[in-house]
């Protein structure tokens, strides 16, 4: 074992052991060697923890492996928390097995509808150190959340009703994380907005924590999702140049080069403490003031409580605001709510009655043309979504939103629907002679989101502000890029696949976003930057692109500096220190 692995091994023992009984719960994401499996922390709020997934694009991935210390020898019954992610009249796509001390347990897993405990088999444990492996059988997104070793053959059903608290009991977790850290500013979400907020605040001398649930920064711009940054730099060119991307095609591997630049530049700031692979899971407010944000490491399970006088929510999904009780909106407003109708486009632009359609989420993907033929299986579980659609790569318009699906609560279903669309469309395309040499090179497993919760500020930004080019006295962000709002193609033509979208473009001259849309209306010490800023559904259409959201982040970082200087909350920067704030922004170029 290498020194690093040994250290991790010792740390992970805490995460594995249940001190009170011989039963042992092993969180799959904390496996020491992930092999070809990936840690998926996107659905923690629904699942109770991240899980491991065999994202092999049709080729079984190498085994994940770990070592666990058993205090008692004897016979154990073994369960895995898993699911058949496409139940139906076909072989489950994500099948796998568990190997314990070299013995492959009898049952194939990943075969039951919905997340539940599946029985893997019985094993005799004769040593204290036990090796566990996950053996992927398909390469098609098998998933394992946790493994449970029990001395009795009783399925751990209570876990299904309240898994998060059951886990807490199993691990003997305290409510308050033992480790606490205090900062001038705590930023959650390391997309372009969060990165820009961290840099601008740090440049002014603030001690900043940036909490991000992925190993790399950039959110949708990261090499993991691969969207290029659009928009203008406004007053923040110098800052945004440290973290932006070139205009490579969506899904291109070139995202890697800008990734290195972004990560290096943020890490260079001594007063930014970067918490990569940490996911915030709670925030509490007292008298409408956030006192702390709690976060957990996505693989070790270690926890930290972050305290600060002020916080930034740049999670995209408005999580910090949501947990703290901030007012927010979701879905499309009725056209009359803010007077945003565009007659030419009718319902597709802004509906008569409010609904839950928003701009959808995407999974980008790429192919590689090789010198020889590559087989790809026919997939009945995928073709029921793809139908006869054929494609060898994806673009931004591979996008999914439905009135009955919530972009946060149903995000796993949305991601999985996109995976079925991708694998099925590729399988269809591979039947054609001209595509025989194509091979899947990269399919993201992270869902790239465009829209979900929008936190409400003192001002709600709408399409009218674009049309009128409202020059707010507190304008801190500016943009010239056209407004584009998306709709699902099948809303216009029922024969179109439901996973493809269309964009409606509105050409515009310069428009501005006011500072009052960047802090919460009712949570006194909360800023928001990014797609969860205060706006209507149509109002988000323009400013959601990443240089504009980056400007929001940079503006918020500077506002936090004024807050610190005078010991005030975000609103008072507007009411008492606006000119000083605008002067500070003016100096940034
Ligand atoms: C397919 C696609 C194409 C697009 N095309 C373009 C384009 O060409 N150009 C452009 O500029 N924009 C484009 N957009 C829009 C743009 O990418 C988004 O609007 C933008 O990324 C929003 O920025 P953000 O910083 O608010 O959120 P994100 O980029 O989503 O970043 C937020 C980050 O916070 C992290 N996070 C969330 N919750 C937590 C938590 N609890 N704890 C810790 N971390 C957390 C997430 O992992 C995420 O990485 C596109 C979007 C998609 C999906």
TrEMBL record:
<protein>
    <submittedName>
        <fullName>FAD-dependent oxidoreductase</fullName>
    </submittedName>
</protein>
<keyword id="KW-0560">Oxidoreductase</keyword>
<dbReference type="InterPro" id="IPR039650">
    <property type="entry name" value="HdrA-like"/>
</dbReference>
<dbReference type="InterPro" id="IPR036188">
    <property type="entry name" value="FAD/NAD-bd_sf"/>
</dbReference>
<dbReference type="Pfam" id="PF12831">
    <property type="entry name" value="FAD_oxidored"/>
</dbReference>
<keyword id="KW-0408">Iron</keyword>
<keyword id="KW-0411">Iron-sulfur</keyword>
<keyword id="KW-0479">Metal-binding</keyword>
<keyword id="KW-0004">4Fe-4S</keyword>
